[in-house]
Amino acid sequence: MSYEDGPRMFQDQLAEKVRPFIDLIDYMRSIGIDKELPLPTIAVVGDQSSGKSSVLETLSGVALPRGTGIVTRCPLLLKLCNDRTVKW
């Protein structure tokens, strides 16, 4: 396994092990359980260049800005909606 294989392996494991839980929480929100019971949300916190954007990209599939220095300096709220017609 090379260094470049690491991110892809992480994404594969995420899809296999974590995504079912995210889908379950999405389903619970869709039927209104969040009105009666607080459902989990994700907060990603860390030092500069510690991989926060990479974690969010992997979880959401949304490409975030890349560059040198401070790129995503402001708080970021990703609110995702499920489209059953598109394969994740």
TrEMBL record:
Top-rank taxon: Eukaryota
InterPro entries noted in UniProt: Dynamin, Dynamin_GTPase_CS, Dynamin_N, G_DYNAMIN_dom, P-loop_NTPase
One cellular component term from this protein's GO annotations in UniProt: presynapse
One GO process term, biological-process aspect: defense response to virus
GO MF entries: GTP binding; GTPase activity; microtubule binding
Domain Dynamin-type G: start-end pairs: 36-88
Keywords in alphabetical order: GTP-binding, Nucleotide-binding
Pfam families the UniProt entry points to: Dynamin_N (PF00350)
PANTHER family: DYNAMIN (PTHR11566), INTERFERON-INDUCED GTP-BINDING PROTEIN MX (PTHR11566:SF231)
Protein's UniProt name: Dynamin-type G domain-containing protein
Species this protein is from: Hucho hucho
